[in-house]
Amino acid sequence: MPGGAPPKKSKTGLVIGLVAGGLVLVLVAVAGVVLFLRGGFGGSGGDGSAVSADGLQVQQDDGSVVLAEPGGTGAPVVEVYMDFQCPPCKEFHTESGSLLDDMGSSGEATVHYRPVSIFATQGGTMAENSLRGGAAAIVAAEYGYYLEYQDRLFDAQPAEGEEGFSAEELTSLGEQVGIDDPEFATRIDEEVAAADAEVNGGGAPSGSAVDALLTATDAAMARYTGTDALAGVPAVYINGSSVDPFTTDLQSQILDASPGEVDTEPR
């Protein structure tokens, strides 16, 4: 953030920075540290299924979502890491979101959406917005509406430094995509409070979607090494190998890849 305080280093070894003057990846780095992962996802809200009505979206045990043809096999696995407060992630979603959704729905690929919060340690509105948006997406996935909800989140992405993703707005976005359970609003209120506690208080409660989001962020940093190390968001991996998210031949790279395996389990 131009003119602001220098980037903070998190307890998980993330160093985060933004570069002004054009679209760039939001970079992260790990420098010789051990990552201490939080506990697993313990959310129990939603309608109990964590699967979309068409069976294509299936929430995983870490809060992420796999988009795939039910019963389909032999497709490459495309992992997508994004932060809903990240402008380049919004740009990537605008450019390639429909392509990935179509490929996952048709069985050409297994698309694994893995939201993270790279701004969690930055403090202030950036951290709060990042955690609120990511946690709300995880809750929406419990109802089987992750894809629809992430579209609305990116449409509503707050400007840098501007407070956004209020409980009222996040609840309204859920209603817009078809979530009509009154419990959704209660869950969102709880997650907004958890995000605020993480940024301004003693930390997010264990088992909350905010906690799951932070765990996923730590795990993503630990999962890949060498040339495949997570170097920024948006980040795209095909069968565990990183690719340029803004490449012009993303579709052909996916179609040319061998079958892969998802490394998580359904909830």
From TrEMBL:
Signal peptide: none annotated. It holds the Pfam family Thioredoxin_4. Keywords: Membrane, Transmembrane, Transmembrane helix. The keyword Chloroplast does not apply. InterPro entries: Thioredoxin-like_fold (IPR012336), Thioredoxin-like_sf (IPR036249). The chain crosses the membrane at residues 12-37. Residues 72-256 form the Thioredoxin-like fold domain. This is Thioredoxin domain-containing protein. It comes from Nocardiopsis suaedae.
